[in-house]
Write a structure and sequence with these properties.
disordered N terminus; alpha/beta; four-stranded parallel β-sheet; 23 strands; 23 helices; about 20% strand; about 625 residues
């Protein structure tokens, strides 16, 4: 309601409204109520000039007190539109880029889906000749680790704390990187994980020339395959299995569908052998492969086996000895009677020791010897028909089981077909045991990846080993136990943030190219090594130089390499080698051992969820092993 009885003045211009009859009457009771409702500053409400002055004065007071200085404000970032639209970019439409996820000694070729500059999904690179679009559970989950809030976020240096110890404190990146200066000398030792990167190998060679010592360590070692091949066929070769061409496969504790290295390729190869294009009656020649599995743990490979023999892991070598004896007796050379007898004696009484080794019908007892004989008979029958077979051994088994498997492949005619020998360059770096011997008091220790405080051999006594070093610098993805015990910590960049390169299991060169800038300023291994050596520190230029040395120069070649996700015709060359029976026999006699029942042992194996890492983040659920 409009109150026109009160004259307007300069202070109250325009219509004046009252809230109630008491307000219009302006009684003493109403004034008391207003004063109780607004104990202080009530006059400022009706006085806009005084209120404006009040805000001016208080704003000046806040500024004088430091509340308005730039250091206490949120950082300002100006959003600018594209002055020139990037090629092939459409707002809201995902883009796909070829890259690769490095693993221990190989890499998984990938195509990554990026939405407005953020990687959100990975798939296999179907164009890669050795992949055909295959990935594994680790590659699929790797995009989650890019956005993991528990990853290393800051550069840190160790400072003494009140508890007479030391703890990592966040400090400027430049101060931490100063710790790497002057380390290109013979008193520096670098412990790394295994890698197939040619660029890293080039930087390591340059630093070795300056006196730096390098070592490699993996808590789960898959090099037993190469070690056995070196004994059987000579140095410089690596076994390459082609499961897609094998009609019958014998697995000696080899989980090639689960935890073995290059499982992505094995899965696709095995699945290809399971496919049939017609009914067996109409096309008898087109039949799916058969899988015989000997194992102590129930693995994914054993679950998919047509015939499974359950034998303790430590006694698989006895089954391998019996299988080799049966093969020698059937298709072996003349004059091998003594070797056959020795192998049978080594195998022992399998039926007595393992009465429940496999499933049987009715109340029949398990017959392990019969199981092995039928398996070998099937392999020999197919080999005589000209069909291809394959015998593989797993990383948990000693090299003697691998030698038995390679000997069977030689007798069955698989070498050169389902078992190919690829040219390989053995690592020239030392082991973690060599590091323990060479690290002297006052030397410098740089740790790239891994977590030796957590997983180094117990008899090595890592704490005492690291205490000899004058300076321990840690480069890793998490602030783990090794980082907490170091003098300096450098956060590692995710592979989706990195420039690098690698080789797949067949030797094909693949790029590791970033889809996003490092979210937290992390550094790659190449950058750390280049900083130590005082050479070019741009990882893009490092990888480009390596590529030009391998494939030649030219912008077109480089762009094709990045576009396709691999370098065509860069597969490792096949090697033709003869099986060295004498060397294999000597190695078998020197190392073959079996657990005598009822002996018990402790079996350590990799986790199908977390591999060999101390922790992994699965959708916010953190697994600590």
């Amino acid at each position: 309601m409009n109150d026109n009885t009160s004259p307007s003045n300069e202070q109250n211009s325009g219509p004046h409204y009252w809230r109630s009859l008491e307000h219009k009457a302006d009684s003493p009771e109403f004034r008391a109520f207003v004063e109780n409702e607004f104990p202080s500053g009530v006059d400022l409400i009706d006085d806009p000039v005084s209120r404006r002055n009040f805000m001016k004065i208080m704003s000046a007071s806040f500024a004088l007190a430091g509340l308005g200085v730039s250091g206490c404000r949120r950082p300002e970032h100006k959003i600018l539109p594209f002055s020139k639209m990037p090629e092939n970019y459409v707002h809201g439409t995902p883009q796909f880029y070829a890259t690769a996820m490095p693993t221990r000694g190989t890499a998984v070729p990938l195509v990554v889906k990026s939405y407005d500059g953020r990687p959100i999904k990975v798939e296999g690179n179907a164009e890669h000749p050795n992949s055909n679009g295959g990935t594994d559970q680790y590659a699929q989950a790797s995009v989650l680790s890019l956005y993991d809030p528990d990853r290393g976020l800051n550069f840190k240096l160790a400072e003494k704390d009140d508890a007479d110890g030391k703890s990592l404190k966040v400090i400027a990146k430049a101060e931490v990187l100063k710790q790497l200066d002057g380390l290109a000398k013979d008193k520096t030792h670098v412990l790394m994980e295994q890698s197939s990167s040619p660029s890293r190998a080039r930087l390591v060679a340059d630093l070795k020339a300056k006196g730096v010592h390098f070592y490699e360590y993996e808590p789960v070692d898959f090099t037993v395959h190469e070690a056995a091949a070196e004994i059987a066929f000579g140095p410089g070769v690596s076994p390459y299995y082609k499961l897609d061409e094998a009609k019958s496969i014998l697995s000696l504790d080899c989980d090639f569908l689960g935890t073995e290295e290059s499982a992505t390729r094995y899965i696709r190869g095995f699945a290809e052998g399971r496919r049939v294009t017609d009914d067996h009656k109409e096309n008898p020649a087109d039949s799916m492969n058969r899988l015989y599995s000997v194992e102590g743990l129930l693995t994914l490979t054993g679950t998919n086996a047509d015939h499974r023999l359950r034998i303790p892991t430590g006694s698989v070598v006895r089954v391998a000895a019996l299988a080799l004896a049966e093969t020698l007796e059937t298709v072996g050379p003349d004059g091998a009677e003594d070797e056959i007898a020795q192998l049978r004696a080594f195998a022992g009484a399998l039926n007595n020791d393992f009465p429940d080794s496999h499933a049987t019908e009715g109340g029949n007892k398990a017959d392990s010897v019969k199981w092995v004989r039928q398996c070998v008979a099937d392999l020999v029958h197919l080999a005589k028909r000209g069909e291809k077979t394959l015998v593989v051994a797993g990383y948990r088994q000693p090299k003697e089981v691998h030698l038995a498997a390679m000997a069977m492949n030689e007798l069955l005619g698989n070498v050169g077909s389902t078992l190919q020998l690829r040219r390989a360059k053995p690592s020239e770096n030392g082991t973690i045991a060599d590091l323990a011997k060479r690290l002297a008091k006052g030397d410098n220790l740089v740790i790239l990846g891994g977590d030796p405080v957590y997983n180094a051999p117990a008899d090595l006594d890592w704490a005492k080993l690291a205490a000899r070093a004058d300076r321990v610098i840690r480069h890793g993805y998490y602030v783990d136990r090794t980082a907490q015990a170091a003098d300096a910590y450098i956060p590692a960049a995710h592979y989706l943030e990195s420039w690098c390169d690698a080789r797949t299991s067949d030797g094909t060169l693949v790029p590791v190219q970033p889809l996003i800038a490092p979210l937290f300023g992390g550094m790659t291994e190449l950058e750390v090594l280049a900083r130590i050596g005082g050479t070019e520190r741009d990882p893009y230029k490092i990888v480009r130089k390596t590529f030009e040395g391998l494939a030649g120069g030219g912008e077109a070649k480089w762009e094709r390499f990045l576009h396709d996700g691999y370098l065509a015709e860069s597969v490792s060359a096949d090697e033709s080698r003869a099986f060295d029976w004498d060397a294999a026999s000597v190695a078998w006699d020197a190392g073959a051992k079996a657990l005598a029942p009822p002996a018990k042992g402790c079996l350590l194996y990799t986790s199908e969820a977390a591999d060999d890492t101390p922790c992994v983040d699965l959708g916010g659920r953190r697994i600590i092993k």
